[in-house]
Specification:
The complex is a heterodimer of chains A (about 160) and B (about 475). Helix content of chain A is about 40%, strand content about 20%. Chain A is elongated, with a radius of gyration of 21 Å. In chain B, a hairpin with a 2-residue loop joins strand 1 and strand 2. In chain B, helix 1 runs antiparallel to helix 2. Chain B starts with 19 loop residues before the first helix and ends with a strand. Classes of the chains: A alpha+beta (about 160), B alpha/beta (about 475).
Chain lengths: ~160, ~475
């Protein structure tokens, strides 16, 4: 192998990696609310339905306290797949959170989802809000989970 | 030492266009561009990963995982480059030569393996750290994931392939055993594929998936096309069979082959083929053997030294044995020539491609000098034939027989060196000639060093160690 080939290889690779690093920094993937997806209020004691994207949960109860029922959060896109949760409200409190869809783009993502979801579930129930710590090593799953949860809580008026 | 110089040197003939030296410069440029392309394929693999912005160096777990992904990507890319190098692609052979392609293939083996091993270790550590598991628990968990048992099996196969290819082990193993284990590398590459597409956080979707599937298609496409389909078609078309086996020395035979339209193989003197003889005990692997005579339309000849069990079986081939082949291969030909004068250094059975090279070379009397090296007169294969050819065509043909000399002229025999023979006295014009060297590696290295010291630059070597 000639020196010219090696130098050429190194310079070409350096250029390719340099460009990619720039693109990577600019891309900086983040979680975002899915376009065109709407969370809909599930069946329950609450009357009527509302568009989840506005986050205005229409309830028959007084404002400020959520009516009983199931509220579906927005679908949140992450680089590893979308995340969507449903919250069950009972007596103005968060009674349960069900994961409808979790990061599942690949085997490792599924593994992370399986491990992070129960932790997030328990944290949310004890904190009674979406304002909980993210699970280490599961940043995208946590962000998606809590963002979707918050939109559901907004609908519920909690 | 026998010197034979029959005719005076006439004026040099007009050169064919394009100028050979320019053609060689272009070939070397293409070879260098291929090296750049190989580097770029790994760089693009890394770049596509970096471009996603998923590189995470903020935590120890993220750093381990990121490096684990990067080593896996580069390691897999190297393995695919190795497959392409071993695919016997004719254009690649014409550009760099099969022997140099295989030398690069061998050099990449260990780095690729260490990267893949690092991939497994780093990801296990990274995941274990992120999940708060110990390494054993994480490994058990990984083994339970989709496609992962196959991936671990592949890594095990790679270990077997690399270990049997280590120089120390390879020498002790029969060629046949090494060959069978080496074939497992196809299984190893394919076994690793499913987990890349289903488990990898990187290859399971997006443009990277497209890039990698394309790389796999190119590598395996080349293998299927050039190692399977093309040889099959050529073998059927030419219908080669063994005509007879001729013993030419106590440990060497010439196999005379017959077939149809052999000129259309476009084999040049000095090239070799991978031959597969469909006889019991030897049909299951192909032998790389040089032509020892330029083929005519109906006949070709190869000459083999009996080195191991596999080559000994060839001495007993019955007339009529069907032969399949792939080739021709090699740059030990006049096609890579850039000077009028030619110097040839051959040792032992390395004389066989030299014989077919000289039969086809377009050279004026006096332009060609040949020296054949052997330890004993018994090892001077094809000597009478070579000498007669040289006599008829005005080539100087020398032999240097005896134990190896030491020192700067170590490629010559001790008796000749003590008589005052040197590289410069045998090849006075070596600096302005194309030098063809063929023989065992250690000897050929010594010969190359000797002629380079005399100013030779255009050196063509055929390596015998595949």
């Amino acid at each position: 192998m000639s020196a010219r080939a090696i130098v050429g290889g190194i310079l070409t690779s350096g250029a390719i990696l340099g460009i990619a690093t720039g693109v990577g920094v600019a891309a900086h993937p983040s979680v975002s609310v899915g376009v065109g997806t709407t969370g809909t209020i599930g069946t329950g004691a609450s009357s009527g339905s509302s568009s989840g994207s506005s986050g205005s949960g229409s309830t028959s109860g007084s404002s400020g306290s959520g009516a009983d029922g199931s509220y579906t959060g927005q679908s949140v896109n992450t680089p590893f797949g979308s995340v969507q949760v449903q919250v069950t409200v009972s007596g103005g409190k968060i009674a349960d959170v069900t994961a409808l869809h979790l990061t599942d783009a690949d085997g490792r993502s599924r593994q992370i989802s399986d491990y992070a979801a129960p932790i997030l579930h328990d944290e949310v129930l004890s904190a009674q809000s979406a304002n909980v710590q993210m699970v280490g090593g599961a940043t995208y799953t946590s962000e998606g989970y809590l963002m979707s949860l918050q939109s559901a809580l907004d609908q519920a008026g909690l | 030492m026998t010197a034979t110089l029959t005719r005076p040197t006439p004026a040099p003939a007009a050169r064919p266009a394009p100028a050979p030296a320019l053609r060689q410069r272009r070939r070397r440029l293409r070879a260098d561009l291929l090296v750049v392309l190989a580097w770029a394929s790994a760089a693009i693999a890394l770049a596509l990963y970096l471009g996603t912005g998923l590189l995470d160096l903020s935590t120890p777990a993220g750093t381990l995982t990121s490096f684990g992904i990067a080593t896996g990507l580069v390691g897999s890319d190297l393995v695919l480059v190795m497959l392409v190098l071993a695919a016997r692609i004719p254009a690649l052979d014409r550009t760099v030569g099969h022997d140099r392609a295989m030398a690069a293939h061998r050099r990449l083996g260990k780095p690729a393996f260490y990267l893949l091993l690092g991939h497994g270790i780093l990801l296990t550590l990274g995941y274990a750290l992120a999940d708060g598991h110990n390494v054993v628990a994480e490994t058990v968990m990984l083994l339970g994931s989709e496609d992962m048992p196959l991936a671990y099996l592949s890594l095990g196969l790679f270990v077997a392939v690399i270990v049997t290819s280590l120089v120390v082990v390879h020498r002790k193993l029969p060629y046949e055993a090494w060959h069978v284990v080496h074939l497992l590398s196809y299984a190893a590459v394919l076994g690793a594929l499913p987990h890349q597409l289903s488990q990898g956080a990187v290859l399971s979707h997006g443009p990277q998936r497209v890039y990698w599937i394309a790389l796999y298609l190119v590598a395996f496409g080349a293998i299927v096309l050039f190692r399977v389909l093309r040889p099959l078609v050529a073998s059927m078309r030419h219908g080669i069979t063994v005509e007879r086996v001729e013993r030419i020395a106590h440990d060497a035979v010439s196999v005379h082959l017959t077939g149809r339209d052999l000129r259309r193989l476009n084999a040049q003197g000095g090239q070799f083929f991978f031959w597969r003889f469909w006889a019991p005990g030897t049909w299951w692997h192909a032998h790389p053997i040089s032509l020892s005579s330029a083929p005519t339309d109906r006949h070709a000849r190869i000459t083999i030294r009996e080195l191991g069990r596999g080559t000994r079986a060839l001495a007993e081939l019955a007339p009529g044995t069907p032969v399949s082949f792939s080739g021709p291969f090699g740059l030990f030909t006049a096609a890579t020539r850039s000077h009028r004068k030619i110097s040839v250094l051959a040792a032992g059975i390395g004389v066989t491609p030299v014989m077919s090279l000289l039969e086809r070379i377009d050279a004026a009397p006096g332009d060609v000098t040949v020296l054949v090296r052997a330890s004993h007169d018994d090892d001077l294969y094809l000597w009478d034939e070579l000498q007669e050819w040289g006599d008829r065509h005005g080539m100087r043909v020398y032999r240097s027989v005896g134990p190896r000399a030491g020192g700067a002229n170590g490629w010559l025999s001790r008796p000749d060196v003590s008589r005052g023979v040197t590289t410069a006295s045998v090849f006075p014009d070596v600096a302005a000639s194309d030098v063809y060297i063929c023989g065992p590696d250690g000897w050929a290295d010594a010969a190359e060093t000797a002629v380079r010291r005399q100013g030779a630059t255009e050196i063509h070597r055929e390596r015998f160690d595949w």
